[in-house]
Amino acid sequence: MNTTSVKAFGTEAKDKDLQLMQIERREVTPTDIEIDILYCGVCHSDLHTARNDWGGTKYPSVPGHEIIGRITKVGSAVTKFKVGDLAGVGCLVDSCRECESCKQNLEQYCLNGSTGTYNGKDPFLGGHTFGGYSEKVVVDEAFGLHIPENLDLKAVAPLLCAGITTWSPLKHWDVKEGSKVAVVGLGGLGHMAIKLAKGLGANVTLFSRSPDKIQDALDLGADAVVISTYENEMNAVKGKFDLIIDTVPYDHDINPYISTLTINGTLVLVGYIGKMEEALFTPPMILGRRSVAGSVIGGIKETQEMLDFCGEKNILPEIEMINMQNINEAYERMLKSDVRYRFVIDMQSLKNGIILKNSW
Ligand code: NAP
Ligand code: ZN
Ligand code: ZN
After folding, report:
1. Does pLDDT of 17 surpass 80?
2. Is the CB of 43 under 6 A from ligand 1?
3. pTM
């Protein structure tokens, strides 16, 4: 299969910085689109993968699954897109399309294993897939997304992961006008959860460890902020929330949040993947029919619905634009919870090879 060599930023090992490298992109197949990447969001999962936090990272690793760009080529059988269109790619580039999950537009739960935009198995070139920290990406049109024209393009990218990951549980648990929703952690996912839940008409509370984020949360639309380390504030919201979306990336005790759920309420984990050190205390679950659940990104149809909803309501993330060359510093800031509230890479910096030190 013919390939083109493109510039990318990735890492060769878990303890190495990301750096400039060349990767291969396949020539478009009949159903493929080729996208010239304009912007790529920076998700905490990029960092987890680059540093092998979850195990299983294949190197070299080129992260990035919040991709926005313009189509430069289409295959002969492509019907959804044409050259010059804007297009987005999120966390998935393929799935089996035949299993029960795929048939229900739940490609993220493909029973035969969906293909991640990075670190997935590449059926075309062998080896593994490379993400959006690169000049171009080639993807089957079935996994491309249409971008509402009215949205500010610079800020759209984070909707492709942070947006859909919080939208999917909001929809699944039927959040609507008057629902009481809480969000744990004000980072990329957390701030989108607030905006989307507000967009659906919910009353929204933020749980945060960071008192310096209170005003930001209120400005983002939250109705209240609870500092999770203040016991009196936690006690004051017992039994209150229909749904809690927990975006914390690392192990933490979820028991204090469970008692803030209403009867039948659900706490959905979308952040931490792994074993929890603190055992679950079951009485609040048994005595209140409360649930603890998990959720991963969303299907392609649902992602398009979320993008269209954001287009209608003009909902966009708060972003800080960075150069590709600043990605390593950006990861360090992410580890300090110092992201307000999503980094987006201006891919022009990779294409031009501009290195603007300390320019954020
Ligand atoms: P992020 O921007 O770094 O935000 C995480 C927030 O969690 C921080 O801003 C902080 O908020 C809080 N936090 C961080 N460390 C904490 C700790 N040790 N204890 C308690 N709170 C802590 O990350 P993100 O991009 O939103 O991603 C969040 C997590 O979701 C990551 O693990 C990522 O891999 C995962 N993720 C999952 C999916 C999925 O499909 N399920 C999709 C995308 C990402 P405060 O300062 O307000 O406390
Ligand atoms: Zn992500
Ligand atoms: Zn499938």
Report:
1. yes
2. yes
3. 0.97
